[in-house]
Design goal:
By secondary structure, the protein is an alpha/beta fold. Helix content is 49%, strand content 13%. Helix 6 links the parallel strand 3 (127-132) and strand 4. Helix 1 (22-33) packs across helix 7 (180-204) and helix 3 (63-77) packs parallel to helix 7.
Amino acid sequence: MAIDHGSSEDGLDGTAPRHGFGVLERTVEACRQVDRQQMRRAVDLLHAVNESGGRIYLMGNGGSATTAAHFACDLTRMPYSLPRTWRRFRAAALTDSLGLLTAWSNDADYTEALALQIKALLDPVDLVVAISVSGNSANIVAGLRAARDMGCARIGLLGVDGGQARELVDVAILVNSPDYGVVETVHLGIAHDLAFGAVQKSSAA
């Protein structure tokens, strides 16, 4: 399925002028189709890695990089908001370090910049969350391969068929829409649900 980078063809109803508001309807429909079983598997994996003392590293490009940062923030901050015993999460977005990202992009290659961070920072007990609409971004694919080779657990928040990334993750959560904006919006909602679910599960352990 081809990816649509944005369309203004759909209106709020069949007669209204078309100004792109159909994104709202397409987002709701895409949310309904997300596999909840895969989301539960992702929560369980986040919890298991946290219980074993592992860290969670997230990565993405563009809008997906901001979702990665948001997800990491929620995982790190949310436990402190719970009114019961909690276990801390240690999470970080690999794309948040401009120094490391640009150093390896300059000294090696942008395609390998995330993979080199993974090799330098991660241990086998850690987990990588890859967020990508196409699942085919070269730096994301390289990062997942590096994490796999190190024995790290891997979760993918992906679009449509998941691309190459789907074969490189333990849990793939797919958003079935050809519209980048829809997929990115649903990914953020999924990130909220996963963070809340994992933190709640850990606080109850």
